[in-house]
Amino acid sequence: MKNSRLFIEIILGAAFMVGGCTTSIKDLQSTTSDDILINQVGYPTFLKKKALIKANINAFELKAINGETVFRGTTTENKYWELSGDSVRVADFSDFSKVGEYVLCINDTVCSYPFKIGDSLYAEMANASLKSYYYARCGVTIEEQFGGKWHWQAGHPDSVVMVHESAADKNRPAGTVLSAPGGWYDAGDYGKYTVNSSITTWTLLQSLVLNNQYHESQNLNIPESDNNLPDILDETLVNLQWMMTMQDPNDGGVYHKLTTKNFDGFIMPQETNKQRYMVQKSISAALDYTSTIAAASRIIREYQLDDLADEMKKSAVSAWGWAIDNPNEFYVQPEDITTGAYGDTLSVDEWFWASAELYLLTGEDKFKETMMVNYQLPITPKWDVVHALGVISLLTSDRRSEFEQIETDFIAYVDEMLRKEDTCPYLISMDKFAWGSNSDVANDGMLKLVAYQLTRNKKYVASAQNDLAYLLGRNATGYSFVTGFGTKTPLTPHNRLMANDGIKEPMPGYIVGGPNTIVLTDCEAEKVVRSKYPAASYTDTQCSYSTNETAINWNAPLVFLSSGLEQYLENE
Ligand SMILES: [Ca+2]
Ligand SMILES: [Ca+2]
Predict the structure, then answer these.
(1) What is the mean pLDDT of residues 3-11?
(2) Which of 186, 407, 421, 540 is catalytic?
């Protein structure tokens, strides 16, 4: 059965390639709501409003919720996308701007999920995506007062963490007990990883800086909401304080991760008492730590946190010193450890990012020299490819004028993304689907909003809005990939808290990893068959760690993108 299905798919796939664009389009009789792809949260009144339709139909209507037709339009021609294996038409209703709730219909019976046209449509999601970090706090009882129906007892106090053999040295032999409480759980598991924490924490700090007006007015209902700091800074400090416990004060080195030897089962935090370990000091951890702590030191000074900023400055310089002495200490997963590796053997980008942040922090020429030696053209960042983070820090700092060529390179990269979007049937810039593809789309959107901040050219905002529309349902799966936002949203992400907290709905505001075909076997036991087309290969099944997990580094660019768009919309 499985083989014959595969055979049919191969034949159909070949037909698409040979027969051109029209063979993959559905006839009207078999279409459903899932074939009308919309931004399920909604469209701001004065930005472009487009839906995608997977059917051979020339006309569409917009109907108010009471059934009244308010707008009629025609669709574009079919466009085939080799990454999704299907063809779509664009239904453009940008000319209609009346605030309200609507459906888009292609005949009397087939209509989309409901969506809104209005302003401030993304504020609730911007807040929820940031609130996800409160739920991710490690070693903290999540109170009903703050968590609502999602609340639980603290686990993982991390007051008795053992130095693993891989991290042992003369000052701290194997078995030495350290305390490293707090921070955030990383993803669907309960580990804490320095590398992934770094890009996440930096992205939230950068959102505080660039989307400042939005964040200054935000109230997340977290325990620190009544103090005088923006809640995004309070939340980020939770992880920064933990990160600083990952540094060995004896030599400045930074442990790569704090985890059990093997993943905890699918249980709540208080149900486990497995021993946790500090595992190996690594060059990636040292350089990412340097970058993030240096950026934090610079940024928190604006909030009169001078003592902590001083401490962070010393700490970042000391981690840099360790990196200089240990440039080849790449992370190697020890044989008795099976939690996430976050291994990375290309560190030119980490050297660039760390030296850029230290240059901005100290103004010392030696850091600028190291930075320029390690410079390469920026690309969309991810946890192991971080040079664009340094570029953004430089270009949004008061030293921007020293880096005209870097700015030219950065804008050229973003302009290239806009060109890709122009030719993509699904109106995004991405042309390959990696693990965590949704975060790549969100990070593309973040770069576009940075380009807008640098140039004030609104074409970048429109493009970033297209990225968010993709994430919220205008994609080949028809899912809004953010929990709780939209109609068809993930209900069973690969996340231990969501799976076991006794509440059916997942906590809102989490983006799942998204479609890709890198691991097609993660739900083999459940007999889930996924599309062989990467843009369509997603399943809302708990077992699908490769498409349906949540992670702090994936949510951070969603925070940036939704907060940045909301700030822009409030000011238009
Ligand atoms: Ca606060
Ligand atoms: Ca790297």
Answers:
(1) 33
(2) 540
> Residue 327 CB: number of other CB atoms within 10 A?
12
pLDDT above 90 for 161: yes
Shortest-distance ligand to the CA of residue 353: 2
Tell how far the Cα of 564 is from the centroid of ligand 2, in angstroms.
27
**Per-residue pLDDT band at 26 (split at 50, 70, 90):** low
Strand segments (E) across 19-68: 36-37, 42-44, 50-53, 59-64
The pLDDT of residue 9 is above 90: no
Distance 222 CA to ligand 1 centre (A): 8
Expressed in angstroms and rounded, the spacing between residue 312 Cα and the centre of ligand 2 is 23
Enter the tokens of residue 290: 């340097």
Confidence tier at 466 by pLDDT (50, 70, 90)? very high
Angstrom CA distances, 32 to 16, 24, 353, 414, 428, stand at: 21, 16, 48, 36, 23
Q: For 453-465, how does the pLDDT look when each residue is reduced to its tens digit (9 = 90+)? A: 999 999 999 999 9
Give pTM, 2 decimals: 0.94
Q: Which of 189, 264, 288, 467 is catalytic?
A: 189
- Quote the tokens at residue 52: 């995608």
Among 344, 494, 522, 566, the active-site one is 494
Encode pLDDT of 541-565 as tens digits. Answer: 999 999 999 999 999 999 999 999 9
For the chain, what's the residue count? 572
3-state secondary structure of 115: strand
Number of H helices, E strands in the chain: 16, 14
List the shell of residues around ion ligand 1, using CB closer than 5 Å. Answer: 224, 227, 229, 231, 234
Residue 22 has pLDDT above 70, yes or no: no
Pick from 446, 447, 293: which is nearest to 377 by CA?
447
**Tokens 């466009």 map to which residue?**
79
**Distance from the alpha carbon of residue 179 to the mean position of ligand 1, in angstroms:** 26
405-440 pLDDT, tens per residue? 999 999 999 999 999 999 999 999 999 999 999 999
Residue 86 designated active-site: no
Is 494 among the catalytic positions? yes
34 is catalytic: no
116, containing H or E segment: strand 115-118
Catalytic annotation on 409?
A: no
What is the C-alpha to C-alpha distance for residues 419 and 448, in angstroms, rounded to an integer? Answer: 12
pLDDT of 570 reads 86
Instruction: Please name the amino acid found at residue 253.
Output: G
**Ligand 2 centroid from CA 289, angstroms:** 13
